[in-house]
Amino acid sequence: MSEPVTIPVHVVEADGSERWLDGSSSSAAPPEEAGDEALERQNKLLRDKLKETHQDLLRLQARHAEELEQARVQGQELAVRAVAPALSSIARAAELLGADDPDLRNGLELVVDALERAVEAAGFTRVPDVGARFDPEVHEAVAVESAAAGQDGLVLRTISPGFVQTLDRSRVVLPARVVVARHSD
Known about the structure:
This protein is α+β, with helices and mostly antiparallel strands. It has helices at residues 36-97, 102-121, and strands at residues 10-12, 18-20, 124-126, 139-147, 155-160, 163-165, 172-174, 176-183. The protein has one domain: Head domain of nucleotide exchange factor GrpE (Nucleotide Exchange Factor Grpe, Chain A, domain 2, Roll). The radius of gyration is 35 Å and the shape is elongated. The model has no long low-confidence stretch (mean pLDDT 85).
């Protein structure tokens, strides 16, 4: 970094007296060292410092925006992880009701649909489950059941739904916990 350049400043006091901030008494002209070259040098130094500060500010803004986005996504992921067990429980309750209370079952299914839409609106997609081929990247097998030859490796039931980020499907927020079919000879 270069040495700072002192630029004398002319000050007129309230009592009318004049002085230079470098300490010299008033005279119409600034001290000799404050010529055009010194002013140009100081101007260049200040412009360079301004550019450097501006670049620092741009980097800080970019980093701040990135950190805010990461915090937003993390918050949404936490919300999805918190909602998923309730979603699963409500869906299971509706399933267990069967035909016993169709109105209550329909009401619970509407709640499940509303929760799934809210999760999707937050930027997450439900992992394909029943009928899909088991994928260890997005599924967690919690049980295996015997099945016909054509069903080997298919998801038979969902214990709890899984979710991935809609824009980055490789980012699994919560794997689907599923029961997988296995053909036994």
